[in-house]
Amino acid sequence: MVAIGTLFSSFWILSVNSWMQTPAGYEVHDGRFFPTDWMAAIFNPSFPYRLAHNVSAFYITTGFVVLGVSAYLVRGGTFASEGRRTMRMALGFLTVFVPLQIVLGDSHGLNTREHQPAKLAAIEGRYDTASPAPLTLFGIPNAGAERMDYAIEVPWLGSLILTHSLNGEIRGLKDFPADQRPPVGPVFYAFRVMVGIGLAMLGMVVLAWWLRWRGTLYQSGWFLLLCQWAAPLGFVAVLAGWTTTEVGRQPWTIYGLMRTEHSVSPSLTGPDVLWSLLAYMAVYLVMYPAGIAVMARMVRQGPREEAMAAKPTEGLQPRAPIVGAPVIGPAE
User: How far is residue 251's CA from residue 178's CA, in Å, rounded to a whole number?
Assistant: First the structure.
């Protein structure tokens, strides 16, 4: 029930966030937004792609946590049987969802190219429009000179991935006014962290099946340790993805319609925001370490089996009369 409730919550959170990225079904009166078509607003152009991509990422994150805990149990040996079983479950799930996530991410990228081309330009670190466009594997964005320094590029691959055509055009940041461009550095690097982790996850799934085919999956201590270290990778990838999405949307709160600087309440002051931020930090700095400590203790204890056999009673006599049994007196 908690998982289902969380999924419903994700639906509405992502619908609202997607509307801010690709607004639809609205009209503006006196600077205020009013809905004209609720279905168009809820199921706005980027929402289906964003929902599928994010929910899949959340499940993959959970799958790698299960994989890491299972590897810990197998390495410890105390609950090796349970660890092997949950490890098989996690690998079966990840075998389907990790490749699926790559397909969903590709679809989301095509949608971003159509509706948020400036964000895509920042993701690719592309200042000049190109056709065909190379894929920039790495580089150092130089915002002052409007170029990518020390770029490592693969010719034509950018167009192939982002347009599904070898000669597809990718618009550069110079096509947009300077005050409507997102900051390139955080978007460029966060996207590569997300994709890099995704490819590493795919590699781990392939490696796991190779080890299982050889019959050494549960005996390979180095791989089990690798699974443990990989347990938090999903969280890092999700945070990197959200950084790409939200920083890449700048300078807009509602993309193309309302700038972030115009969304700040005039009644809020700097100290108000600071105290609010500090209060949130204090709560989470208590809540998260406590939660992690509780979960770590549960993992160390391992699965606990309930006692199946009842304790024998004194004199081997039942604790209560047996319903329907004949009553036998002393003389008999």
Answer: 10
- Whose structure tokens read 């099946």? 209
- Cβ atoms of 230 and 201 closer than 8 Å: yes
Domain that holds residue 230: 2-123+182-263
> If we measure between CA atoms, which residue out of 166, 151, 234, 161 comes closest to residue 200?
234
Residue 26 host element (H or E): strand 26-29
Each residue's pLDDT expressed in tens, for the chain with a length of 332 residues: 888 898 899 999 999 999 999 999 999 998 889 999 999 999 999 999 999 999 999 999 999 999 999 999 998 888 888 889 999 999 999 999 999 999 999 999 999 999 999 999 999 999 999 888 899 999 999 988 888 999 899 999 989 999 998 888 999 999 999 999 999 999 999 999 999 999 999 999 999 999 999 999 998 889 999 999 999 999 999 999 999 999 999 999 999 999 998 888 877 788 888 999 999 999 999 999 999 999 888 888 888 754 334 445 545 555 555 555 444 444 44
Which long-range contacts (C-beta less than 8 Å, at least 24 apart) are formed by 178-181?
179/251, 180/118, 180/251, 181/118, 181/121, 181/122
Residue 131 lies in a domain: no
- The reply to whether 207 and 281 lie within a common domain is no
Query: Among 113, 105, 119, 106, which Cα is nearest to 57's?
Result: 105
Bridge partners, 154 (sequence order): 135
Predicted model pTM: 0.84
Query: Is residue 229 in a domain?
Result: yes
* Residues 41, 16: Cα–Cα separation, whole Å: 9
Distance CA 236, CA 29 (A): 41
In a domain, 158, yes or no: no
Evaluate whether residue 324 is within a structural domain.
no
Count CB atoms within 10 A of the CB of residue 248. 25
Question: Number of folded domains in the chain?
Answer: 2
User: Do both 258 and 284 map to the same domain?
Assistant: no
Alpha-carbon distance 20 to 45, whole Å?
11
Give CA–CA dist 15/86, Å, rounded: 33
